[in-house]
Amino acid sequence: MGAVVSCGLGDQADKLADEYLRLAEQDASAVVVSQTWSEVHRVNSQVRDKLKSKGLLGAQDTVVQALDKLDLTNAQKRDERFYSPDAVVVFNQKVRQAEPGAKGKLAGILKSYVLVEVNGRFVTVSNKWLDRFTVCQPRELPVTQGDRLHLKSNRRLASGRRVTNGELVTVKAVRSDGGIELTDGRVLDKDFREFLPGYAVTSYGSQGKTVDYVLFSDSTIKAATNAQQWYVTISRGRRGVRIFTPDKEQLRENVARSGHRPLAMELAGQDVPRRGVVVRDRVYLCMLRFGRRAAEMFCRLQRVRRHRRLMMEKHEHKNIRKLGV
Q1: What is the pTM of this model?
Q2: What is the C-alpha separation between 7 and 218, in angstroms, rounded?
Q3: Are residues 167 and 126 in the same domain?
Q4: Distance (Å, rounded) from C-alpha 209 to C-alpha 233?
């Protein structure tokens, strides 16, 4: 099979699953890199079904309730519209009485904090600590021997060993108490459910992972493919890479495009900056002869002096108003 495979969007997931199965039968490790989460979920389902049909996974499935992490900003975490009725709040770090791994439900959003109910007790999470929890969506997930899982949280297990967000692990067995044994000897506690099927991941999720073959699922989305993202993807494969695309020409154009984000001044084009900005830039350039650190310290000192002068003028104006002058 060539490195680039032409296929329609309709049969792309099926072809990716066939290639994954072929490599698995050769005992080669592989991962599918997709550009959208909908594609990730679709390919994961297709690959698992084919592995199951060929007897490469255990015969007995155990259905667990996995937690699919939602990538919410701190502003979105303060908006009740982003919490579905069954959304689960998982603490990544200790917050008051809530230990790492504790789970709860949103109880309310107030001016300066978010209220979470954990085991019948309310935990107040200050706005500055919103990054200490994640919002997850429960989803039923069949798990059996040989399944590949993509871990989505950092945690210390009951055994004392750790798991890392982004790891790809393989299931050895599912215990009757809900614990999941891994082939590397670790055991995922029954309370650790932040994982997804790990046959397909996003390009971001592929960073740091190395396998024998990378199967790249191109969706022709221009914004999702560029030179930097392309390098991250293809460099994950030790032995090779396969690209499945519905449009080779569009893929070539996207890959040639730089992922560099232009600065605001570059986007401004020929717009003339304000006089104060021009003067400040000229002063900075002049001070560079004494070194970058000296130039930055000088400009910082100028900003502090300007702020103090403005505050003094504001104070004087306030006193004058009080005197009725």
Answers
A1: 0.69
A2: 10
A3: no
A4: 10
Q: Which tokens is 68 given?
A: 């699919």
| Domain hosting residue 168, numbered range | 4-61+144-256
Paired tokens of 262: 């232009």
Domain check: are 281 and 217 in the same one? Answer: no
CB 7 within 8 A of CB 246: yes
Which amino acid is present at 114?
A: V
What is the tens place of the pLDDT at every residue in 115-130?
999 988 999 999 999 9
- Backbone φ and ψ for 315, nearest 5 degrees, come out as -65, -45
Q: What is the DSSP-derived secondary structure letter of residue 185?
A: S
Let me know whether 148 and 277 are in one domain: no
Mean pLDDT of the chain: 80
Place of tokens 């040989």: 146
Residue type, 242: R
Q: What are the tens digits of pLDDT across the range 209-259? A: 678 888 888 776 555 555 566 666 666 678 888 888 877 777 677 666 555
Residues 209 and 156 in one domain: yes
| Residue 151 shares a structural domain with residue 46 | yes
Are residue 13 and residue 154 in the same domain, yes or no? yes
Whether 48 and 162 map to the same domain: the answer is yes
**Alpha carbon distance, N-terminus to C-terminus of the chain:** 88
> Does 3 or 87 have the greater pLDDT score?
87
- How many other C-beta atoms lie within 10 A of the C-beta of residue 244? 22
